[in-house]
């Protein structure tokens, strides 16, 4: 296991060891002691996954305080372009995004701090995106920003998007409750 920093403060990539043998693969995506050693003290409260067709875009999602959370994301089957957007006012990377390919092949786990909006595009049918979070789902706190409002080129002519995701405010319309350095 190895942890890599990104240009966005608090956003990290866990690169697990992938054990391959004649049966297939074995990948460990979370180890409490290892995270503690890297000063990531978290308690996982909920885990879930989605399965998406190719060209599905989901996002850009987050939960607002006090139900905001650290979110771990990885892809046990398939491949995505994962995108996070910094919506912490005062952050050196406020309104900037970061993208990374997550796949069953690379096993990478994205560790997303509070105050970042998250979304992805599925690059393959039957892509499984799995999450672990430090707070439970709260429908009232679950919010989003339009996926096509912050300058990221999704490279997709006909994305499959939910009505809810199309109803969100744009980045500029959204008044973010997140402040860099608060409660992180
Ligand atoms: C996220 C979530 C949704 N739901 C319900 C609400 C809805 O009826 C159905 C599908 O929800 P959504 O359309 O929000 O699913 P989806 O668009 O896949 O939501 C996910 O998107 C990505 C980008 C994330 O970052 C995740 O944290 C999560 O927000 O499941 C829960 O019951 N619990 C949950 O934790």
From TrEMBL:
Participates in a stacking interaction with the thymidine ring of dTDP-4-oxo-6-deoxyglucose, annotated site positions: 137
Catalysed reactions, as listed in the record: dTDP-4-dehydro-6-deoxy-alpha-D-glucose = dTDP-4-dehydro-beta-L-rhamnose
Cellular component GO terms, alphabetical: cytosol
Coiled coil: none
GO biological process, one term: polysaccharide biosynthetic process
Active site residues of this protein: 61 (proton acceptor), 131 (proton donor)
Protein name as annotated: dTDP-4-dehydrorhamnose 3,5-epimerase
């Amino acid at each position: 296991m190895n942890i890599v920093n990104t240009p966005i403060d608090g956003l990290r990539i866990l690169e697990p060891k992938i054990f391959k043998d004649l049966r297939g693969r074995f990948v460990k995506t979370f180890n409490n002691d290892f995270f503690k050693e890297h000063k990531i003290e978290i308690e996982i409260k909920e885990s879930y996954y989605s399965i998406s067709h190719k060209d599905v875009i989901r996002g850009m999602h987050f939960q607002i305080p006090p139900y905001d959370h650290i979110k771990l994301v990885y892809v046990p089957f398939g491949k995505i372009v994962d995108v996070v957007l910094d919506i912490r006012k005062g952050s050196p990377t406020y309104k900037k995004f970061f993208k990374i390919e997550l796949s069953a092949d690379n096993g990478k786990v994205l560790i997303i701090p509070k105050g970042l909006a998250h979304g992805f595009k599925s690059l393959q049918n039957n892509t499984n995106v799995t999450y672990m979070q430090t707070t439970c789902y709260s429908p009232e706190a679950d919010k989003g920003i339009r996926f096509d409002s912050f300058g990221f080129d999704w490279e997709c002519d006909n994305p499959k998007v939910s009505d809810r995701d199309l109803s969100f405010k744009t980045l500029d319309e959204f008044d973010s409750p997140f402040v860099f350095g608060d409660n992180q």
